[in-house]
Write a structure and sequence with these properties.
By secondary structure, the chain is α/β, with parallel strands linked by helices. The protein is built from 15 helices and 8 strands. An 8-stranded parallel β-sheet has the order 1-2-3-4-5-6-7-8. Helix 5 links the parallel strand 2 and strand 3. It binds inosinic acid and zinc ion.
């Protein structure tokens, strides 16, 4: 079986996908046609092959996309498209995350925003799209204590009313802006009400103190964690705490390389954690902005770090253990993996691992 086919057909779990960062070229084109007056070109919303940007420039790209996606109708459209695109890449379980926004011009409220995402998830389900989708409500660290608290309240409301679709909170946004310390009360409240926590952490150097505070919560998963380990200016005690609590890392290779927080694929911290045998879920972060797909990220992980197909299979299967939905969903997904395995890995596991 050709490599491309193998990685496409590999059943996958996507745990770190920002909605507006995941919008594809096709959806961007539709949005541009809807809003020609904005004078936005597709090249302003994506970072192509071989291109690099500073983290600052990446955050400017999100601002452009936010101008294009500013109504309930737009959110419903992009969420539907993104879900279908992940499903076409054989992602069987997806946790989408997004920051609720209010837009005066279109009358969009934060509540409408979340409703639109939930509607997209429900509609895809009704149409029989083969993917289980959940939603993490995102806190943008830029906006401080009060907004974070409001966001948590919104997430709590929807956790109760969405039939299990809202499962957690994401902490994201420009890591060089805002203080993690200010967001602790909101994050604690979320955790106490049963929302899971996925926190972007140590995405840039010199966040040791903040990472220590956030690890005390503790989070249920870590986004990036690039600078946690001692070789990257972190510390052994941070690593020990992540390992002792067995907190999975969400690994986004292309995002980190294109955003230049990591100098090259081979220097990516995935290697450090994978060699420790620590749970790592390969993810895309922003498949639209960084022009990638989850199948491509798995293929890059394998080619960069010399993983056999058997090892890649195990990596995708272990990501199921890191999902925020309940035990019943985990079991259903494991069953799916078991059914798909013989068609994809023709050799016995022991031999496949030697390839
Ligand atoms: P949205 O929340 O659906 O609007 O997705 C875009 C947002 O996700 C950005 O404005 C950031 O707040 C966040 N985001 C996307 N990628 C990253 C990242 O690599 N680090 C931190 N935040 C990110
Ligand atoms: Zn992210």
């Amino acid at each position: 079986m050709e490599d491309d086919v193998f990685y496409k057909e590999l059943p996958k779990v996507e745990l770190h996908a920002h909605l507006n960062g995941s919008v594809s070229v096709q959806s961007i084109e539709k949005l541009i046609q809807r809003k020609p007056e904005l004078n936005i070109q597709q090249s302003m919303t994506a970072i192509g092959k071989g291109q690099r940007r500073t983290l600052d420039e990446c955050f400017e790209v999100f601002k452009v996309i936010h101008k294009l996606v500013d109504s309930q109708e737009d959110i419903l459209m992009v969420a539907t498209d993104v879900i279908n695109e992940f499903a076409a890449d054989n992602v069987k379980y997806l946790e989408l995350r997004s920051t609720p926004r209010a837009e005066k011009d279109t009358g969009l409220t934060k509540k409408n925003y979340v409703e639109a995402v939930i509607k997209a998830i429900q509609q895809c389900k009704e149409e029989g799209v083969d993917i289980d989708v959940r939603f993490l409500v995102a806190i943008d660290r830029r906006n401080g204590t009060e907004v974070a608290m409001e966001t948590v309240k919104l997430a709590e409301e929807f956790m109760l009313s969405s039939g299990g679709l809202v499962v957690g909170i994401d902490l994201s946004g420009d890591p060089t802006v805002g203080r993690g310390r200010d967001l602790l009360p909101a994050l604690e409240k979320a955790r106490n009400s049963g929302l899971k926590l996925s926190l972007h952490m140590s995405e840039v150097p010199s966040q040791r103190e903040e990472s220590e505070l956030l690890l005390n919560l503790p989070p249920d998963r870590i986004g990036h964690g690039t600078f946690l380990h001692p070789e990257m200016g972190g510390s052994q005690s941070l690593v020990d705490r992540v390992v002792d609590r067995n907190i999975p890392l969400e690994i986004c290779l292309t995002s980190n390389v294109k955003g230049q927080t990591v100098s090259s694929y081979s220097q990516h911290h995935f290697k450090y954690w994978y060699q420790l045998g620590h749970p790592c879920a390969v993810c895309t972060d922003d498949k639209g902005v960084f022009c990638t797909e989850l199948s491509q990220e798995y293929q890059l992980a394998a080619s960069t770090f010399g993983l056999s197909r058997g090892a890649v299979w195990t990596l995708s299967e272990r990501a199921v253990d890191c999902i925020f939905a309940g035990e019943d969903v985990k079991q259903q997904l494991k069953q799916k993996w078991t059914e798909i395995r013989p068609g994809l890995l023709k050799l016995p596991e022991s031999k496949e691992n030697l390839l």
